[in-house]
Design brief:
heterodimer; A: Rossmann fold; six-stranded mixed beta sheet; 10 helices; B: 289 residues; mainly alpha; MetI-like fold; two-stranded antiparallel sheet; 11 helices; 2 strands
Chain lengths: 266, 289
Amino acid sequence: MWRVDLADRSRAELAIQVQKLSLWYGNFQALFEVDLDVKRGSITALIGPSGCGKSTLLRSVNRINERLGSYVRATGSVHVLGHNVLGEDVELARLRRQVGMVFQRPNPLPLSVRDNVLFGHRLHRADEKFSKSQEDEIMEAALRQVLLWDEVKDDLGQRAIGLSLEAQQKLCIARLLPVKPAVILMDEPTSALDPQATEALEHLIWELRGDYTILIVTHNMAQARRASEETAFMLLGRVVEHRRTDALFLTPRKQETADYIEGRYG
Amino acid sequence: MFEATNLNRRNHQIQWLFKVLFGMMTLILIVPVALILGVLVAKGGPAISMEFLFSMPRNGLTEGGILPALIGTMWLVGVALLASVPVGIAAAIYLSEYAPDNWLTRGINLAIINLAGVPSIVHALFGVGAFVVFAGFGASILAASLTLAVMTLPVVIVATRESLQAVPMAFREACWNMGATRWQTIRIVVLPNSVSGILTGIILEVSRTAGETAPIMFTGAAMFLPFLPQGVLDQTMALSMHLFVISNSIPGMSEEFKYGTALVLISLVLLMNALSISFRVYLRGKKKW
């Protein structure tokens, strides 16, 4: 798995390359030959009205759509770091190590803060030995990177479920970091949070760019403007327009884009 | 303008009527429980003594104690649990965490529900055929316990499956999305958070097993044995069977002995229920969400 052939080399410049991706839920076609390139280390926002397929597109990158059963069918390709993740010989555990995901509602595991942060690390590196102090270092680095360390360092054994929603969501990001994913997918990561927590999260997401490639679905256009470098506008299962965020919001090329960002539908 | 109208008053009256009606029904519900316990304690209490609990019966069961029946019930319940719990939990984990939703799974679920509805005397006959005769265990603790195990299996499965399904789906998905396998998810997240429900279900089940008479009557329980069981291939006495025998077939049996035996049996059951409830309370306090 993860074979590297020369033809794939050029694709490796891109963190994600979606090509002619069509996806059906039963007889309903949710995506129509979608193309999308996401540069390494960038933050790309997916915007569009409800039902436009942006979450479906996001969930195709780590293939959690498939969990809905065999009535989900897809054609086309999704390359992550130059490798087609829709291929036959893809081990989902390794794919999800490279492509982490953050959800609308924070979903920390019913474990301690420490065990949450180290969960993925222990899962994916179970065949290596780590001392407790090494684990502590890894945990601290992850918690510092999500700006949560100072808040939880005094009680790392506390239950993650007891934290504030903001802290829980940061924790959900922190637990992805120890295994150094290439891509982090975020599905409306702030929609369960209050405005202050949203701001803190956006700040954090902005800080993570460069180290990680982030693809974020948002309903909040102000958020897309503030916290992304590129924005793709989707409508009815197609990518209508994909450009630099400021350009897309200031001078949309398509009428549909202009209508959406001016709030005429959505 | 906000005074009650006649319509409002009538609504309130009707609502009060139903509240009282339902409350009375609830009271009726606890009357038999209170009566049974009260009568047993009043009539059987004087029989309870160290000798009654810990000595062999004498003089055609009319004197002495119930020790072999008490020990026998523990044997039966213990062996039945050893057989039904591992199978039941494994089956429940499969059904809850792995099984695809297809006709086979639905068929199995239907079979489990039906198995739970089979009358215990039918289980007894099955036990005679399958364990006593076909498997060649003879009338023994093993045959009787396996019969009880088959009978209790559906309840263990249902209780386990319900506790597993009480663990929010979001936890599983969070695990899977991190790249965990189903088994890693079950081991790290699902089981630790459902163990309280599973254990409670099992203990409640034990108490039911302890009281069963029909399934053990033909498969391993004896009216009277002058010795304690030494192994699973021995026959044994049992509390429920003993109660049945002394209430039915022994002339000149003292009332006190009958009620005393019933009191011991019901105390055993209530003790186990109390244990399971306190255990659940304890584990719920430790729950992580």
